Amino acid sequence: MSKNKKGKLFVVTGPSGVGKGTILADFFKNNKNGVFYSVSMTTRKPRPAEKNGVDYIFVSKDEFLKAVQNDEFLEWAEYSGNLYGTNKNTVFEKLNAGINVILEIETQGAKKIMAKFPDCITIFIVPPSIEELESRLRGRNTESEEAVQKRMNAVREELKMLDKYQYNILNDELQSACCKLQSVYEYEINHEE
């Protein structure tokens, strides 16, 4: 990539449990150069198999709020009782170096990024159905009934905003969804305004 060409900012969002992480893990197996995955900071407790600094940067609420006070976030939001944020210095550093950046963020954060960066590429991962998504969330066995219900209420609101995103990728069959994300990425990095 040329030194004076900026990287492109990709925003991947969708409801909790829709498979964003699984689809992106597949994407990064096939795309190792010229693209950076921005690891979000969160106050959420790690799930089994999640690694600090890889899946999220897990911090206390006090540490997170200190980062907010220090204006370290490009965006941050509270979702289902936990705080999530994207480090702005890391993102700007990569974009200015001509590296594409992928943000995997909650829909609240996606709205903030879309307002600040109208030229970002927005991708919403869509569940096959509300029932299937609820089944996936329950299958995790990581959240209380109250937390699952809170997430499902949020999902119903999030799905009303599908038309605000440039791309909607249905995750009804994993390999198909992975291929669609790859196609969107290739189109966007090869497409000049």
Described by the principal axes of the CA atoms, the overall outline is globular
Number of strands: 9
For this structure, what is the CATH class? Alpha Beta
Largest sheet: 5 strands, parallel
Strand content: 15-25%
Please identify which CATH superfamily we are dealing with.
Answer: P-loop containing nucleotide triphosphate hydrolases
CATH architecture: 3-Layer(aba) Sandwich
Describe the structure concisely for a colleague:
With 193 residues, this protein is α/β, with parallel strands linked by helices.
Short key terms for the protein model shown above:
single chain; 193 residues; alpha/beta; Rossmann fold; 5-stranded parallel β-sheet; 4-stranded mixed β-sheet; 7 helices; 9 strands; globular
Polypeptide structure, described:
- The longest helix is centred in the last third of the chain and has 17 residues, at 174-190.
- The protein is globular and about 50 Å long.
- The model has no long low-confidence stretch (mean pLDDT 90).
- 42% of the residues lie in helices and 21% in strands.
- With 193 residues, the chain is of the alpha/beta class.
- It has helices spanning 20-30, 61-69, 88-96, 107-116, 130-140, 145-158, 174-190; strands at residues 9-13, 35-38, 41-42, 57-58, 73-79, 82-87, 100-104, 121-126, 167-170.
- Strands 2-7-1-8-9 form a five-stranded parallel sheet, with helices on both faces.
- It has a single domain (9-190), classed as Rossmann fold.
- The protein is built from seven helices and nine strands; from the N terminus they run βαβββαββαβαβααβα.
Topology:
Elements lengths: L8 E5 L6 H11 L4 E4 L2 E2 L14 E2 L2 H9 L3 E7 L2 E6 H9 L3 E5 L2 H10 L4 E6 L3 H11 L4 H14 L8 E4 L3 H17 L3
Parallel strand pairs: 1-7, 1-8, 2-7, 3-4, 8-9
Antiparallel strand pairs: 3-6, 5-6
Helix pairs in contact: 1-7, 5-6
